[in-house]
Amino acid sequence: MKASISTFWILVLLSISLVTSDDSVNFNSFLRCLPTHSDHSFPIADAILTPNNSSFESIYQQRANNLRIFLSTTSRPAAIITALHPSHAQATVVCAKRHGFQVRIRSGGHDFEGLSYTSEVPFVILDMFNLRSIDVDMASETAWVQAGATTGELYYRIAEKSNVHGFPSGVCTTLGIGGHFSGGGYGFLMRKYGLSIDNVIDAQLIDANGRILNRESMGEDVFWAIRGGGTTSFGIILSWRVKLVRVPPRVTVFTVQRTLEQGATELAYRWQQVAPKLPKDLYIRLQPQPINNGRNNKTVRVSFIGHFLGQTNRLMQLMNTSFPELGLQRSDCLEMSWVESTVYWAEFPDGTNIDVLLDRVQVNRSFSKSKSDYYKAVIPRQGLETLWEALMNIEDIFVQMNPYGGRMEEISDTETAFAHREGNLFMVLYGVTWSESDGGIDAAARYVELSRRLYRTMAPYASSNPREAFLNYRDLDIGSNESDETDFEDAEEYGAKYFRNNFMRLAGVKTKIDPENFFKNEQSIPPLPIRPGH
After folding, report:
1. Model confidence at 396, in pLDDT bands (50, 70, 90)?
2. Does one domain contain both 387 and 450?
3. Which residue, 32, 28, 12, 8, is CA-closest to 20?
4. Residue 357 included in any domain
5. Pairing of strands 142-146, 134-137
6. Cis (ω within 30 of 0) for the bond into 466?
7. Terminal CA-to-CA distance of the chain, rounded, Å?
8. CB 452 within 8 A of CB 475
9. Is residue 351 included in any domain, yes or no?
């Protein structure tokens, strides 16, 4: 082992041809620093990838799900640390801070703007993907989940122990737990149980000094901040301890689709009034999409996708009372276990085995630009028609409208850093996607402008002053800094949209735990500015 490690370091130190001579000195020092700050029982040499490694580029791109990012940046990390042990993450922080490298933290790679794997200053990626243990304890109905585990793995491991427990989290099953939870984490259980962070009871966080802190040692202010404020402004999340939630042995899912010619506009108008007020056990997402009606004419098809924590008979009674206009039929409904419903929501074909939840890497990556909105008032019929028209003028657009109400209204907007609570009817994701065959940078510019045009179109109906946005749907259009700058005024601009009135408190927490602003990115939270005379 000693001989192989020595050979590894000789090859690494001879391989750095992609940095300048001045940077090379720092980089070599960084590499030599790493083993002195990590557990020797788990050699960090096994976790380091440099540009000389044959697998460097494939690992770099494998967990970078938005291909658009590679069109707009030429930067590459000096190294990727694929942490195999918590001490590897600790060593990365200590050594990067000492030798002048920025650290970007990645788990699942679903970062819409690539902030977890790009920077315009010398940087290394700390890839948490291999730190993926999940320890489910049914006696306490809790689980410790490491940052690199995926939502699909969490659902699967819970189901191994119980068919009457679940966890409120995202519908995409390859989301990395580390980042997904820290921005909020929502899914079809949000109206019943709130967000992922509303069910987090402890955490392990590496601070800027390389210390591993738990809830007690980090303090309640930091624990508050990392639940909804994004951990990458404050440290590196190692693991979350979550409280499992109760689900019935059988749940019901359904999808009902209507086109404009079948009255979709009136149904969508009614959905806005009904969906946030339904019983907590029932969640109905509205998803409009442009289609060709078969006569070379475009129209919009609106999907109503539902999840009910109960059986079909009870669901039919509720729908016939609360939303009879939809015309839900028993034949539209499927009964299944809760874990099977996570496969349904991830849009796998009916009957797909739950083993698919263990697939950890997103296969169908695309070029995309996404934006988000919160709506506090019903979009009038004319506004819906404006939306339909906009959709029919954009290819490969998807829109998801997610209802609030229920538990989301019961939790104070200051209980965690996630402030989008009471007063919202629904939250919307807009996304434009395209493929490599559509072209390169020129195509990207065109599609990005289409997403911005749709966003501008919906401005009269969305929240305002500020126009709120969801942190997990990163959008640099709403304000940003340079890679190595965190101007407070710029941060206030995007901070108000992501965190509303919680931004200043988050900046205060940042001042306490990371006053030197080591953990930063283009949309990070800065320390409070130093006032004159202090």
Report:
1. confident
2. yes
3. 28
4. no
5. antiparallel
6. yes
7. 53
8. no
9. no
